[in-house]
Amino acid sequence: MTTPTDLFHRLTEGLAEGRYDELSPLYAEDAVLVHPTTPPRPRQLEGRQAIHELLTGRIGATMRLVAHDVVVHETTAPEVIVAEYQNTVESLKTGRTIENANILVIRARDGLIVRSHDYHDYLKLAAVRGSIEPVVDAYAQAPAHVRGPVAPRPAELADRKSPLGVFQRLCFGVSDASWAELPDLYAEQTDVRHPFLPNAPLLKTRDDLRAHFASAGELGIRMQATDLVTYQSTDPEVIIGEFAYEGELGGKPLRINNIFVVRVRDGLIVESRDYGDHLGLAATAGRLPELFASLGDQTA
Questions:
Q1: What is the pLDDT of residue 267?
Q2: What are all long-range contacts of 271-275, with beta carbons under 8 Å and residues at least 24 apart?
Q3: What's the whole-model pTM score?
Q4: Residue range 93-131, pLDDT digits in tens
Q5: What CA–CA distance (Å, rounded) separates 298 from 198?
Q6: More confident call, 87 vs 222
Q7: Rounded CA gap, 12 and 16, in Å?
Q8: Which of 56, 113, 152, 167 has the fewest CB neighbours in a 10 Å radius?
Q9: Torsion of the alpha carbons at 164, 68, 79 and 263, rounded to the nearest 10
Q10: How many C-alpha atoms does 232 have within 13 Å on its Cβ side?
Q11: What does DSSP say about strands 203-205 and 222-232: parallel, antiparallel, or unpaired?
Q12: Which residues contact 229 (CB under 8 A, 6 or more apart)?
C-alpha cells in the first residue's frame, strides 16, 4: 500500500523534475488542498482538477522547485504525516534562485492524498519573482478581516509535563498575554526558530525567550488562540500543532495562521520551529516594505 510518506516523496520528486502534469493523480478526485498562509487570505482548492490547474499553471509555468533537508514526522494517526523541508526555488521569469522553508500536513487514504495543508514562505517566493508590489497590492485590495468566533478552550488542559499540555499552555498563555510566565515553558538551553521570518535570531536560552516575549508584549497585540489541532508524532517527545490567533493590532482585526513543531523533554520545550504568517502580521501593521527589505540580497 502506498503510504503518505511515499506520496510526499513522489510529489516533491515530480516537482523537482518538472513533471507537473503527472502530479495531480497523487490526489483523490475530491481532495482538498489548503494554503493557510497564502497572501492576502487563505486559499482552498477542492477537487483533483483544481489542483492540476495549480500545478501546471501558476507553479509549473513560473517556478522550478527542488526539495532538500527533508524531515518527515510520522504521527500516531497512520493516515497523517507532517513534512518539513527546504526548497531551492528558481523563478523561470527572473532566473533568480532562493531558499525557502515549507511544511505540509498530508492526510492520505487508499493510496491517495485526500487533504493537504501546505504552508510556504510566500515572502521568499515574492522575492525570487523580483517584486513585493503584487503582494502589497493584494493586501491593499483585500476586504478587511472579519473576526470570527474563538473556539472554547478545553475544560481541562492535558498534563503539565506532556507535550500536549505544554503546547496548550503556550498557545493559551499568549492569549492571556502572560508574557512573563511563558519563558518558563522552555528549557534553560533551547532551540527556537521562526523559519518564515527573515533573519530571525535563533533563540537559544530562556533569557532569549524572555526578551522575545517581552517585545511581543510591547507591540500591544491582542490575540486569542483558536482552532487548535494537534498531531502527536510517533516520537513521543514531538507534537505538531496547527492553530490560529484571532485578534487585533493597532485597532485592525487580524487572523494569523500558524503551525509549530515542538519537542518537549521533561516538561520543557527544548526545540521549536514556529511557522507563522509574518506576511499577514506585517500587512496589518503596515510594514510589508520593511519586511521585504529585511531579506537583503538573499536571491542568487
A1: 98
A2: 271/190, 271/191, 271/192, 272/190, 272/191, 272/192, 272/193, 273/84, 273/192, 273/193, 273/194, 273/195, 274/192, 274/193, 274/194, 274/195, 275/37, 275/101, 275/103, 275/119, 275/194, 275/195, 275/196
A3: 0.96
A4: 999 999 999 999 999 999 999 999 999 999 999 999 988
A5: 10
A6: 87
A7: 6
A8: 152
A9: -10
A10: 10
A11: unpaired
A12: 241, 242, 243
> What confidence tens digit (pLDDT) does each residue in 281-291 have?
999 999 999 99
Query: Are 4-138 and 163-293 equal in CATH topology?
Result: yes
Residue pointed to by grid coordinates 504525516: 81
pLDDT tens figures, 26-46: 999 999 999 999 999 999 999
Q: Please, which residues have CB within 8 angstroms of residue 49's CB and are 6 or more apart in sequence?
A: 24
Work out the number of other CB atoms within 10 angstroms of the CB of residue 70.
14
Alpha carbon dihedral 59, 65, 69, 72, in 10-degree steps, equals: 40
Which neighbouring-strand residues pair with 259? 242, 275
For the chain, domain boundaries: 4-138, 163-293
From the options 3.10.450.50, 3.30.930.10, 3.20.20.190, 3.30.70.60, give the CATH code of 163-293.
Answer: 3.10.450.50
